[in-house]
Fold these 2 entries.
Entry 1:
Amino acid sequence: MLIKTATFVVSNTNHKDCPKDGKPEFAFIGRSNVGKSSLINMLTGNKKLAKTSSTPGKTQLINHFEINEQWYLVDLPGFGYAKVSKVARLKFEKFISEYLLERSTLINTFVLLDSRLEPQKIDLEFMNWCGEKGIPFSMVFTKIDKISSSALQKNLAAYKKEMLKSWEELPPVFTTSSESHFGKEKILNYIGQMLK
């Protein structure tokens, strides 16, 4: 699938204020500093679409981008390390979970994971929560250009081992690099298949 147009539509903190045209949605979420904005910009071929920042936790709203006038790419706030108050974090968590649970047009959530790190408790907890709530998701490992292939395989195996403690099988897994565009075609083709 080729992305020809990517247009920012709306930002908000309530799933009820999201677009009501019924177009399918694909959400992207991950811990702060996982490289989410860079990945979104790489997938859409637009370096300025999602705001990248050296300060983790820049995304604090649900952001809808209309792709090819056919579907929405949804940029969700990161969880974890962002330097926000506990009150703000709880507020985020509430509107993120409401969006994920209530949004009937949500087809898949891409959970971004830093390939350089061993399995992180917060990531595993989030994916298990998605599983318990029946929210379809895929695992997307980012920044593979910043790690050796042997270290990458070791971390992927560690994630697989952790996940299989509570899962019968793994959800789809993608490995990506925003620098080299590795993984772009696979993710876009995956989205294309689900849209058919």
Entry 2:
Amino acid sequence: MAEMSVPSPVVAPRPPLYLVDASLYVFRAWHSMPDEFQDQQGWPTNAVHGFARFLLDLLERERPRHIAIAFDEALDSCFRHRLYAAYKANRDPAPDALRRQFAHCKALCVALGLAVLAHHEYEADDLIGSALHARREAGMRGVIVSADKDLSQLLFEHDEQWDYARNQRWGMAGVKARHGVHAHQIADYLALCGDAVDNIPGVTGVGAKSAAVLLAHFGSLDTLYERIDEVPFLRLRGAAQMAVRLREQREHALLWRQLTTIALDAPLDGGPADFSRVSADAQMLQGLCDALRFGPLTRRRLFAAAGLSDSPSVASEIA
């Protein structure tokens, strides 16, 4: 008698949580969009126009049910500045015209019913990491919309990162092909070779390739220092001198890792606990469209993305 086959249980797909690194796209619009756009008060609105186009594109393309938009408010008040005063000191402060547009971008997200994450002590990366960490336990997977390599350290088996501008996506397994190290090694990797974008020096004489070789051999920064005597014998150019530098700069290396490690315990006060979309605020959205002088097409797309009928101003123009 033939044995009856038992069907494998059907595993429901993990619902995606879209986590958007908003500042990246606001800055990109600020630098790439022409400065011909102005609000009712004469202030430039090129960044908010560009960000709105990106956001609408994402919402129309993916129709996400769960989404959070993370903004950087901790540009000079982040906890990392208390650890290292020169953190991101190479960046010029945002001009008032750009700060105003960040506020408009946040307001636009709120009006659309999207969860907004921002905190004066935690960066957008920390808010994204904390949101993903919180919802992963509830069975969700993360789709991190950003090209920032720092965020790759957050990727687990079911997550993915999406460089929206280049339309490139990769998961945990794809990190090594891009950076030479595994996802869980990114913070250690940046601690060793440094991160010029954030003004983190790294260990003197350790470049990206050397850092990758060290982590391939030892696995982690902690193990590297536990077995530091092995470094001079590695097939690595200047290995003996590198070992000396690593010993001399041990405390610095550990500090750099504190700076490059994304926090998973940042306060999350951006709406529903599962970051589901809520009802849009039609009055707020209309007010923003008027104040920012959005054209009919952008208004129509915004109201459609919000699940609302055409705004009164658009309807009157059509009539």
